[in-house]
Specification:
With 451 residues, this protein is of the alpha/beta class. It folds into 3 domains: 8-118, Gyrase A, domain 2, CATH 3.30.1360; 124-207 and 383-432, tRNA modification GTPase MnmE domain 2 (Four Helix Bundle (Hemerythrin (Met), subunit A), Up-down Bundle); 220-372, P-loop containing nucleotide triphosphate hydrolases (Rossmann fold), CATH 3.40.50. The chain has 15 helices and 12 strands. Strands 3-4-5-2-1-6 form a 6-stranded mixed sheet. A 6-stranded mixed sheet has the order 8-9-7-10-11-12, with helices on both faces. A hairpin with a 2-residue loop joins β8 (256-262) and β9. The radius of gyration is 29 Å and the shape is flat.
Amino acid sequence: MPRSTDTIAALATPVGTSAIAVVRVSGPDCVALAKAIFGSTPLPPRTARHGDYRDLQGRIVDDVLVTFFQGPRSYTGEDALEISTHGNPYIAQSILSDLLLRGCRIAEAGEFTRRAFLGGRMDLSQAEAVMDLIHARSERALAAANQQLRGSLGRHLGELTEGLLLVLARVEAYIDFPDEDLPDEDRRVVVKELDSVLHGTSRLLATHHYGELLRDGIKTVIIGEPNAGKSSLLNRLVGRDRALVSPEPGTTRDFIEERIILGPHCLRLIDTAGLNPAPAALEKLGMDKTLERAAEADLFLWVLDAARPCPVLPAEVVSRLTPENTLVLFNKADLLGESTPLPSVSLPALRISALTGEGFSGLADHVVRLADSFRHDHGDEIIAINARHADALRRARECLEAARQKVTTSAPTELLASDLRGALDAFGEIAGKIDNERMLDHLFATFCIGK
């Protein structure tokens, strides 16, 4: 475990030539460092000051802007410095090397945020939101990260924890009196209160899939028969010739994946081999990969040639298509008259032309509506838990369900209390109330240096 009494330093901006670079310092020696480097005049907190950075030999390394943040009103909760230099990698490295000679050590991955968490500046879910904010790929992902950073998930967990503590207090009141047990009236109250906590836990757990979509992108698979225009659709959505397009059917033999931003969402567009009812051997291998991608898809764009009858799709694909996850695109509309009727389908459909762009504004609106349907309503807040949160919530729900079962079967109060404490511990893991060094080491190791 890193020593929190050390003064740490790291580059807080990406490595490489840029307009500016920022070196971040945090720890008990910041005031002394500022005095030694920039002169005897104390730096006023939270005010940028221009000055020369002089190394231990008194040589000017660069003229910089330095800002002093006095603890606890800093990111880490400790005294901290941020030194903005010209963005020459040699300058930034020279300053870092000088800070090391003055007694600092290089920060480990995520150590600034870890100190913020350990110092009570944020809970663990907020610390994780820092990384989500850095890596957000879309407007929705950015909004979710910002709200979690401001404590949205922590507030919901706090409400559940308070409700659970009330139940536990009611139950534990009887443990000190071995000859007594929960009366029927109290058992009914406990069941009602447990049901409320269970409902809230399940609602939070239901946001896990949406959280995965925000962090990784919505897996959107383009399917259809050969030569329907799937690759032309991909190229137009991507904005460049990403896939080969040919009048010859079966050009795509393997899947092609590209990320795009469509409205407020990030989509992982996957162009697949055409679904041919009588494929050649190589084409069959491509179709097998199409079926694999279809089994994992979140959304489907089913491309049809508007001038041809609707093809018959494999049963394993048809079973996955629903009005909630599929948009049918009648392509090559430029070859038809406006009054030409389209085949009837039981799924949302749109008339487009991948060649001319006709219908693409409507396509974006339809896909955004489908993508938004994955969100579970929590008022105005976007809750999108990650895999670690989901694991803890599942364990909490199992404990709560076990507790509810014990209440209804008049099991010993001590066993009921044990299940309730298990749920409480699982809630505590999400916010970081449980001191688990191995878990913290693993989590913060995924952060970048300087964060």
